Amino acid sequence: MTYVVLRCVIAFIAIAPLSSAIAATLLEGWVVGIADGDTLTILDDNRQQHKIRLAQIDAPESGMPYGRVAKKALSDAVYRRTVTVQAGELDRYGRVLGTVYLNRKNINLQMVADGYAWAYRHYVTDIAYCRAEAQAHDSRRGLWADKKPIPPWQWRRMKRTSRSSPPEGVRGFAAPCDTRSRSR
């Protein structure tokens, strides 16, 4: 676990200067939709919808093992509740990248701590996500009950390459917070 945390510290130091360039704003709204384990939709007081991609985490995709479980966990946590989003920039799909809070509780971090998502190696800027993932892994919580769960970024790459779902029995090889994975 010490090696994992050290790798995250190095990644954090490399990325931290970039994070200050993002001007964060606060959004508040009622959660009206859950697309998957790391994407939700809120409705603000002006009745405007905002699609939010939970920053710094990557949850299993809908067609992956634990995909439905991750979606349900996010839904159980925030659906039909008022949340605050520390919003940053838009991702390439037009979603707001943000940290979701429910009563000051960081939902993004909780998803990782409960074993429903990975710390997103390429974009993580807060070492707390790496620590939470390592603890979930060591405790075999959530998706970590599987000996070698497939990380979502690896699954997406395999799907793009083969244009089909990964062969049954194929398992991932990414260690918790292994910053070597760089594709999205």
Question: What is the strand and helix layout of this fold?
Answer:
Blueprint: H1 2-19, E1 25-36, E2 39-43, E3 49-54, E4 57-58, H2 67-78, E5 82-90, E6 96-102, E7 105-106, H3 107-113, E8 118-119, H4 127-139, H5 152-162
Parallel strand pairs: 3-6
Antiparallel strand pairs: 1-2, 1-5, 2-3, 4-8, 5-6, 6-7
Region (Disordered): 155-184
Pfam families: SNase
InterPro entries: SNase_OB-fold_sf, Staphylococal_nuclease_OB-fold, Thermonucl_AS
What key attributes describe this structure?
184 residues; alpha+beta; OB fold (Dihydrolipoamide Acetyltransferase, E2P); five-stranded mixed beta barrel; two-stranded antiparallel ribbon; 24% strand; globular; disordered C terminus
State the helical fraction. 25-40%
What is the number of strand segments?
Answer: 8
Number of helices: 5
Query: What is the CATH architecture annotation?
Result: Beta Barrel
Q: What's the structural domain tally? A: 1
Query: What is the distance, rounded to the nearest whole angstrom, between the alpha carbons of the first and last residues?
Result: 25 Å
Net shape: globular
What is the H-and-E element order? Answer: HEEEEHEEEHEHH
The SS-based structural class is alpha+beta
Q: How much β-strand is present in the residues?
A: 15-25%
Identify the strand order in the major beta sheet.
1-2-3-6-5
Please give the radius of gyration in angstroms.
16 Å
Give the CATH topology: OB fold (Dihydrolipoamide Acetyltransferase, E2P)
| Uncertain stretches of 5 or more adjacent residues | 15-22, 179-184
User: Which CATH top level class fits?
Assistant: Mainly Beta
Average pLDDT taken over every residue: 85
